[in-house]
Amino acid sequence: MKIQVAGFLLMLLSAVELCEGLRRINAMTKQQCDAVMAAEVNNGRGCQHTETFIVATLDAVNAACQNVNEALATFPVVDCTRKMRANGCVYEGNAHGASKVKLQCANGQVVNYVSVVRLA
């Protein structure tokens, strides 16, 4: 029984790791990483190492979720990665024009951003 519980907890932790670091934002360029990370992610809690932003409106994302529980849709993304030798929360941005984003859906709306595969 203890082994089953431990296995179940490991499975849950793995699922959580897939979801961390993936958010949606209406508009963003790679030059805006410092400002967006400060406002949307760090909020005085220290400097997070990496965050990926899906650049799309909520309506556009929800459109991919119609009549499905999971969707794979193409959106631009911006990766923000903390510069290791910088003082404070300084980030380098990398824009990808097209990326496949796996979405978890319920009732025609996105409920979770699962993963992203960068295509360009």
Automatic annotation (TrEMBL):
<keyword id="KW-0732">Signal</keyword>
<feature type="signal peptide">
    <location>
        <begin position="1"/>
        <end position="21"/>
    </location>
</feature>
<dbReference type="Pfam" id="PF00074">
    <property type="entry name" value="RnaseA"/>
</dbReference>
<dbReference type="InterPro" id="IPR023412">
    <property type="entry name" value="RNaseA_domain"/>
</dbReference>
<feature type="domain" description="Ribonuclease A-domain">
    <location>
        <begin position="28"/>
        <end position="106"/>
    </location>
</feature>
<dbReference type="InterPro" id="IPR036816">
    <property type="entry name" value="RNaseA-like_dom_sf"/>
</dbReference>
<protein>
    <recommendedName>
        <fullName>Ribonuclease A-domain domain-containing protein</fullName>
    </recommendedName>
</protein>
